[in-house]
Amino acid sequence: MRKTQWAHTALVLQNLLLGTTYTFGAWASVAFHPLVLTGLRMSGAAVIYLLIFSLTGGWQQFRPTGREWRQIFLITLVGSVVNQILFVAGLRYTSPANSALLYATTPLMVLLIAALWQRLEVLRLYKLLGVLISLAGVVLLLVLSGVVPSRVASAPLLGNVLTLGAVFCWSCYLAFSRPFLQRYKPWHFASATMVLSALLFVPVSLFFFPQQDFAAVPRQGWLGLASLILFNSLASYFLFLFAMQYLRASQAAIYINMQPVVAVFFSMLVLGDQPPVVFYVAAGMILCGIFLINYRQR
């Protein structure tokens, strides 16, 4: 098998893992206090990333300037700490399917940040059309999907809004970390931001630990926490890094469309979730818009 084929296989596996973590994460978000869950996830991932950082020569090779450290601090605060708090809180109230679909708008958010904020991207007509179609799908999902609570979504409108905020924070992380990923090894930068996010947030989360009854956490809750650390924070990222050595970003972006599909089927299989018709309409609009955004004219 050629390296490009292995890269495509890695992206398929990555998005399969991410598609299942929305359900696992929903288990964990119900079993744990949101801030306790975020602290546990960050600390667990930070330990693993610190080990990887040390074994790959990070202490010798990763040496940002003082100005770069200030930028890394802001990127970490928004793209990791705030992102994870909103993501976990959103999963507590909305369905895994809705959460995955909103995260599929990440290329849309990155494009808007690059075009309107960083001035690095030009909104061509077909991209603008894709933006409008996807935004219409997001509005449809936020408004109509948030009307009726279900057995897997206690307050879908609130959860959708929180998740959309998490997507924006994650998109800021992707957009503003690009210069660092070009200058430093990606796993060194990821390790630095993960450890820094744990140092920023874990002391705060400790104040909420007395409120958490760890003995009452079911096995599903611990399984959800483990999946968030191992699948979402670790395995999926390194599969993505491997694939990006042999594929273009535009090729990799297409695979994010798998996540809502996997999330829906896995949520239906495990949780018995039955998304309303409006979800599928919104999904079609959002994914169609994402396709247009990633379309490359000859």
Question: Which secondary structure elements does this structure contain, and how are they paired or packed?
Answer:
Layout: H1 3-31, H2 34-55, H3 58-61, H4 66-93, H5 96-103, H6 106-117, H7 125-144, H8 156-176, H9 178-183, H10 186-205, H11 219-244, H12 249-254, H13 258-271, H14 277-293
Percentage of residues assigned to helices: over 70%
Main beta sheet: none
In terms of DSSP E residues, the strand content is: under 5%
Radius of gyration: 19 Å
Number of strands: 0
Inertia-based shape: globular
Q: Which class of secondary structure composition applies to the elements? A: mainly alpha
H-E string: HHHHHHHHHHHHHH
On the 0 to 100 scale, the average pLDDT is 87
Distance between the termini: 28 Å
| Low-pLDDT stretches | none
Query: Count of helical segments?
Result: 14
What's the number of domains?
1
Q: What attributes characterize this protein structure?
A:
mainly alpha; 0% strand
Please, could you describe this protein's structure?
With 298 residues, this protein is mainly α. The protein has one domain (3-209, 217-293). It is 78% helix and 0% strand. It has 14 helices and no strands. Helix 4 crosses helix 10 and helix 5 (96-103) runs antiparallel to helix 13. The radius of gyration is 19 Å and the shape is globular. The chain starts with a helix and ends in a 5-residue tail after the last helix. The mean pLDDT is 87.
